[in-house]
TrEMBL record:
Superkingdom classification of source: Bacteria
UniProt-listed Gene3D superfamilies: Aspartate Aminotransferase, domain 1, Type I PLP-dependent aspartate aminotransferase-like (Major domain)
Name of the protein described by the UniProt record: 8-amino-7-oxononanoate synthase
Keywords: Pyridoxal phosphate, Transferase
Length: 376
């Protein structure tokens, strides 16, 4: 056996032993919530399609039309010949939605964070990132070469201490956080972070992947990034910012420059979805209302977003709970380290406008039944 295969097999054995091996499961999403796995229909509480727009006929029609008109792919990077009309229209609309001068669409949210962070700061600069920030915020920080420190999750006191101590030595400073934390569902104290940042001349990047369209936006940060793949039901990432920042990143974000532009259908779908988000506020409010119905029924702290974690601690417990819910017809995927910190394996429940009240109540009953201590 080659040393490469031996390495792969050895590592897989270790992952298996810790119940941390990941496997792909064939999954057919049939609409906003119904999902088929291994021939069974399950009600999914694990999709980030918060408004069910990935299956909305208007969104599908917009994508289909773009597909027929502009073809399946962008054909080249944006700076060569990949800057097609749906992308230009989408950027204009995203900027207006966020109240910013301009926007830049990337291949994905992950690529956006790689390019934004490494395009704006580097060696000699300082990055302060919330300890529970998404993997791509840390990846962008690492790629940048700037000195990177984590501040305790949502701790203004720790952030202030780090700024007091280290800001003076750095040329530029950036603070990275999320509007809604992807695995915890809580929100960052953005107004206070923005005030601290201003006092220390630090630039705030807010990852709005899980906030766009489903959470009251509140104050905007100078750098508002997000994804087209969750509420907007499509694929791709974006940054909304001032015109000079967008123009600079168009020249400097390597994950934007050296990759093919988003397919026209993806951009057109996101644009149609954004129209619906703005036109139908009652739909946008529904996922949070359902999350709150669920937390109220189970006596959990009130949901701050459509994401509700049920932290169980051990990986095996989370896997067993997920399997038991699946046996009852609910798909709630267990989230394990390193996605979440060791000892905090959990079920991450995501609510969608496409869920019915009865489905939410059914899940609450099943969780209460399987997890004594969490009672309806
Ligand atoms: C907070 C956060 N940021 C960024 C991303 C990456 O976005 P994308 O899926 O578009 O790469 C995700 C999830 O995928 C996320 O949860």
């Amino acid at each position: 056996m080659s040393s490469l295969d031996a390495f792969a097999l050895d590592t897989l054995v270790q992952l298996d032993a810790a119940s941390l091996r990941r496997r792909l499961a064939a999954t057919e999403r049939r609409n906003g919530v119904m999902t088929r796995r291994a021939g069974r229909d399950l009600v999914s509480f694990s999709c980030n399609d918060y408004l069910g727009l990935s299956h909305d006929p208007r969104v599908i029609a917009a994508a289909t039309e773009a597909l027929a008109r502009y073809g399946t792919g962008a054909g080249a990077s944006r700076l060569v010949t990949g800057n097609h009309p749906p992308l230009i229209a989408l950027e204009k609309r995203l900027a207006a939605h966020k109240g910013k001068e301009a926007a830049l669409v990337f291949g994905s949210g992950y690529l956006a964070n790689l390019g934004i962070v490494s395009g704006l700061v580097g060696a000699g600069d300082l990055i302060l990132v919330d300890a529970l920030g998404h993997s791509c915020l840390f990846a962008g920080a690492k790629l940048s070469g700037a000195e990177t420190m984590r501040f305790r999750h949502n701790s203004l006191a720790h952030l202030a201490t780090l700024l007091d101590k280290h800001r003076g030595k750095a040329q530029r400073a950036m603070i990275l956080t999320e509007r809604v934390f992807s695995m915890d569902g809580d929100r960052a104290p953005l107004d206070a972070i923005l005030a601290l940042a201003e006092a220390h001349d630090a630039w705030v990047l807010v990852d709005d992947a899980h906030g766009l369209g489903v959470i009251e936006p509140g104050t905007r940060a100078p750098l508002e990034m997000g994804t087209l793949s969750k509420t907007l039901g499509s694929y791709g990432g974006y940054l909304c910012a001032s015109r000079p920042v967008i123009d600079l990143l168009t020249c400097r974000a390597r994950s934007f420059i050296y990759t093919t532009g988003l397919p026209p259908a993806s951009a057109a779908a996101a644009l149609a979805a954004l129209d619906i988000v703005e036109a139908e506020p009652e739909r946008a409010a529904r996922p949070l209302a359902l999350a709150r119905r669920f937390t109220a029924r189970l006596g959990l702290p009130e949901a701050q977003s459509p994401i509700v974690p049920i932290v169980v601690g051990e990986v095996e417990t989370a896997l067993a709970l997920s399997a038991a819910l699946e046996a009852r017809g609910f798909l709630v995927v267990a989230i394990r380290p390193p996605t979440v910190p060791p000892g905090t394996a959990r079920l991450r429940i995501a609510f969608s406008a496409a869920h019915g009240e009865a489905q939410v109540d059914g899940l609450a009953e099943a969780v209460a039944d399987l997890r004594p201590g969490v009672t309806p």
